[in-house]
Each structure stands twice: as structure tokens, then as C-alpha cells.
Amino acid sequence: xxxxRFMKRGVIFFFYDGQGIVDRYVPVLLSGMKECAKxxxxxxxxxxxxxxxxxxxxxxxxxxxxxxxxxxxxxxRYALQKIGWDRIxxxxxxxxxxxxxxxxxxxxxxxxxxxxEKDVDFWGLSMHYGIPFDPYGLTxxxxxxxxxxxxxxxxxxxxxxxxDFRSYWEQLPKINSYGESVxxxxxxxxxxxxxxxxxxxxxxxxxxxxxxxxxxxxxxPVRLLKEAGCPxxxxxxxxxxxxxxxxxxxxxxxxxxxDYLKExxxxxxxxxxxxxxxxxxxxxxKKCLQLNYVLDSRKSFVDEGxxxxxxxxxxxxxYYEDLLEECVHYAxxxxxxxxxxxxxxxxEKKELLEKRLxxxxxxxxxxxxxxxxxxxxAFLVGMRxxxxxxxxxxxxxxxxxxxxxxxxxxxxxxxxxxxxxxxxRPFVENVIGLLEENPRLGFLTVPPPIHGGYYPTLCYEWAGxxxxxxxxxxxxxxxxxxxxxKEPVAAIGSMFWFKTKAxxxxxxxxxxxxxxxxEPLADDGTISHAIERIHSFVVQDAGYYPAWLxxxxxxxxxxxxVTCMLRGFNQVIFEKQGGYPYSWTKSRLFYTDPEEEKxxxxxxxxxxxYDVGGGYSESCQLHxxxxxxxxxxxxxxxxxxxxxxxxxxxxxxxERGLFLLKDLCITAVYADGSSRxxxxxxxxxxxxGGKRDILFxxxxxxxxxxxxxxxxxxxxxxxxxxxxRAEDL
Length: 729
Prior knowledge:
Blueprint: E1 9-16, H1 25-33, E2 39-45, H2 50-57, E3 62-66, H3 71-83, H4 85-90, E4 93-98, E5 101-102, H5 109-116, E6 122-124, E7 127-128, E8 147-148, E9 152-156, H6 157-160, H7 163-171, H8 178-195, E10 200-202, H9 209-212, H10 216-219, H11 221-227, E11 233-234, H12 242-246, H13 253-264, H14 270-279, H15 282-288, E12 292-295, H16 304-308, E13 312-317, H17 324-331, E14 339-344, H18 347-356, E15 363-368, H19 374-382, H20 384-387, E16 392-397, H21 408-419, H22 425-437, E17 441-445, H23 466-476, E18 496-499, H24 504-507, H25 527-541, E19 545-551, H26 552-576, H27 581-590, H28 594-598, E20 607-611, E21 616-623, E22 632-638, E23 648-652, E24 659-669, E25 675-677, E26 683-685, E27 688-689, E28 694-696, E29 703-706, E30 715-723
Parallel strand pairs: 1-2, 1-4, 2-3, 6-10, 12-19, 13-14, 13-16, 14-15, 17-19
Antiparallel strand pairs: 4-9, 5-11, 6-9, 7-8, 16-18, 17-18, 20-21, 20-23, 22-30, 23-29, 24-25, 24-28, 24-30, 26-29, 27-28
């Protein structure tokens, strides 16, 4: 076949954006199609900004906006009817494509020229080789069959001009979900017309690909671009469900694609950052693009001239006098041209710091601040205006943790932060080079601690702060995705490097010390804890991305810890209980008696301590048993009526941590038979989270219950649901 037979082409382009914004990649995509297409028809589902409409109307006079219904199927059907079946049949080739692909990374003409040689009635860009089950529960056969994907289909007049094509679209059911779009259209289109005798081919189908991976354009994109000359790639590559990547690959494909596009094509990868930072969840972006930087701590790869081009500062909040030498050590890691600010709360400490740091070649200034709000207020109140004068800033603070025993756990966390942010001068110089070389990189912090009592932090990054972070995001005017089920790339511990432009929205707020609670500061749920988790979203909203930072030595330790713990899980899964870790973990954590386990019971070893004046005493306690089946907690204590006055009670559920009590209710029963729920304001606990959903990390969990009634209760009932599942923790 000669290419001239297919000179008249029309494109139906489906577009959707939740905010109605047309990112730069869209006109680039459609302009690339103009090389081989005569007419472009754009169907917009949902909203469209005025600026977005202006962009699209520069490309074509055919821009149609409709309700956001029917997904791509509804949009294509709408356009086909709008254009008219007679006109559709007069196009040599009709192209159905949508906004989920990006490119082109090369001219589309070779693709059209090559496919012009194929004697087919329709063809497509890429294959999906099917799924051996139905993830949507909608198919009759119970699986998803192999098919050409609907993001780019080309229909020749030998099919588009037929009644078969028209009736297909008119008989399609109303599409109400993504799953229905796949099951009722995308996965059946190829087979439907093949069974009717129409011939088809796929442009990127290569030998052996079917056995290699089920979804080549997503899971092997570089291979398709290099070997098959594919001009397009999936936008979703950079924020796809990472667990699905891991079913077929080691998770390297999205990062490899970004590197390939940047190094071997002329495609402007900044357009990728623009669209994914605006519309995708940062947890997905970070995982898919492997945003973990490991830098050399012994040799600098950045010359002094490059460092001097930037205004750089270290802001270090100092509180503990016995950690003075630690402060001196890490402050010494800054290059001489960087300025150093130490914030502290007393004149005595100020004098101590000025004297001890006087040997540094840097410009050093010690700033007095109010300790209300601790390090967070020191940064946002005491240093807010100052940091705006700089381009790159590192913020750290000394750290002691007293709620975990042994205390070495807290010391190791502090070391984890400092060693991966300020390990040495060569390391810091490499950090500056990293920030300079990556224009979209705006925030660097360390990964969550995973040792000792900190271990659950890795799946509990929000702690009890999600709602407060959402409120703060609204206050700051942030417009990026935020989901409770997906972790923030947060600076747990409030230590980080950042570009000041990336944190502008946080720094523009006129914070006051009164915005922060007075001491003693609660373990969770305060404005400080919300700010600790908002940084990365402020950065993303500004068009920058957050990432994890490691020194080479810090990465070695973290990698050892991760593999050690993963190996422990594998032992549980594959050796102890034949692949069912949940029951094993339940038994090991809560010492289920074999006979009781048959009855669905488990042991909590609950204890109730009395405060009859002078605090709680081991000599004044009650023991009980849990009367409910897993995972319910139903514990009852018959109180000693010989005690005239009880000031308070302390409930210890067990002598172990790493569990969650959900839907907690405490009921007091009185001598006259009446009962009432104990108000939540009368409780306090040493866990994390709210009053009714408490995560206990410590091996000595307790709930303190105080009384104001003159009459003592005769019975105390405690009911809850216990969970040790990772998704709950």
C-alpha cells in the first residue's frame, strides 16, 4: 500500500483533567499528530479553564466540552455522533487517542508509513496481553483477554464506513467506571471485530513480548521506544501502583524511562514533572521514579566555584547543652561560604555557642528565640524572614527522646537524621550539587526510622495528623493530591534540606509563637506535627518534588536494616505458618493458648492499677481476662469497694507494643446499677493518635482514667477492637 492512500486522517482526542488545566504536553502531543493528520477533534469531559480552552482552540476549531460521563468510551461515542457517520467513513484513517499517552518522542510519520504497508482494517499502538483473572468482576469468561489498547487506535475506512462499526458504538452500554470501560470496550474491541472478519495489526508488537510482560508500554517502555520505534509513552508510568510494577519488574522501569527520555531524545522531560506534580500523589511519584539519592561522603564532586554561586545557609536549633559537641561537629560540615545560624532559648546558651563556634570560617550568628513550639517555631517564627534571603537551606535541631527505653533508640534516630543530612563537608557539597543539577528537586529529607520502637513509623507516617494536615493545606491554599491511604514524603523528625522557592507558601505565613501549644507538648496531633508533614506538599504545590537523601554510610545501614527485617517477615510467611503470617503474628504477640485459640480467644494480660493517693502502686492492682474472640477486646474489672476514694485508674492492656486499639469505649458501672461512658476528656494515654483509636508503640502501654465523681464506680468495662495489621498500624 502507498502512503498517499491514507493522506486524509482525522483524530478524535479525548481529554480529561480534574482541574480543567491543559498542561504543556497536550499541545505538544497533538502538534506531533498534525504531521500526518488533517483534522483534530477534541472532546473534553468535565471542566476546562479559559486558558486551557485557548490552548486547545489554537490547535483546532473543533473543541467540544461535555459532562464528565462515560470515560473515554463516552467521549469517543459523542465525537463520532457529532462528526457524523458519513463524514467518518470518508476519512482514510480515523485515529482514536487520549490524554493518557505522552510524546511524541520522534516523528510519527515512520509509524504511519510502516503501518500503511499492512493490509488491515484497523491497527493500534500497543498491546495488553491480558490478565488470567478479572480484577473488576465484570467479565463472563472470568479473565481479561489480550487486546490492543484504547489509548491509540487507528480505524481505516474499510471498517469505519461499515454498519458494523456504527452499531458497535451505538450498542455499547453506558460506562460508569474505569473497569466497565476496560471490560465492555477496550478489552473486547480487537476480538469483536476480528471475529467479524476484519484484519488488524499492532505497531509495537515484537517477538517474545507476550511472554516477557503483560503490559509492555507501561512495564517495558524503553524497549518499545528503542526497539519498536514507539513514539509515545504512558503518563501513568511515573505514578502507577508500584506494587503492580513489582509483580513483573524490580520497579526500575519508570526511572529508566525518564533517564532515556532525558539523555537519548529531544523530549522536554520538564513537561512530565509539570503534569505529574500537579495531579499525582507524591508517594506514587517517589516510588516509581526511585527518588532516593545516595551521595558520597568522602569525596566532593562539586567545585568551590559552583558552591559560591548559591546563597546557602544552615539553621540549627540548639536546646540541650550536653549535645554542644554534636552541634559543633555537624555545623563544621558546611562549606566556608555558607552562613550558619544557631537558634537557642537563653542568653547563657547563646554565649556558650558563640564562644565554641568562633573557630569556624563561616559567618556564624546565634539567634535568641522563644522555646514555645520548639524547633518548628524557631524555624517559622525566629528565622522565617532570614531564610528567605537564601537559595538552599538545611534545617536541623538537636534531638533527645526519653519515651523509649533504652535511650539509645532516640540517639540512633538523631544520628540517622544528621548522618544523612550533614555527614561531612564533601557530602554537603555533593548535596548542593544535587540541588543545582535537578531544577525540580525542592526538598530532601531522611527516610522514617525503622529501628526499635520506631519501626511502625514506616506505615504510620500520618500518625494522628491527617485531618490537621488537610486543614493546614486548605489554609495555605495547596492544590495537590493528599490521601490518607498514601504516605507523605514527610520529614519525620523535622530535619531537611530545601530550596526556599519550594517552601514559599509556608514561609509567607506570618507565624507567631502563640500559634504553637505551650509545654508540655503532646506526643501527636499538634500544629507542629501537622507542619512536620506539610512540607513536602507545599513543595509539590510549588512545582517541585520531595525525595529521600542518604549518605553512602547511612544508606548502607538503612539497607541492612530493611533486608534484615524483610528476611524476618519472610521467615514468618514461608517457614512458620505456611504462608499465613497474620495468625502467627497474632499468636506470638498475644500468647494465644492453643485451647483458647480453638475458641477464638486470645490473652491480653490486662491489669488495672489504683491511684488512692500518691500515684499508682504495684501493690494495688486488679487482673482480668479478655472475654471476647479475636479481634475484639471486652475486659471487665470488679473494683474493690473497700477503697473509700479512688483518684484514678490506669489500664495496662498488656506488656507489649505495636498494636492499635480501635473504637475504644470505657464504661463505669455504679452500685445502683447505672452506668455511663467515661468522657474522653477524662483519659490520657502514652500511645499515638486520638482518644478512641490509639496506636501503642511502647512495650508498656497504658491508659490513665481520672475521676471527678464523688461516688466511686463498682465496675469498669473496657471494649475495643485490636489490630496489628500493617494497613491499620
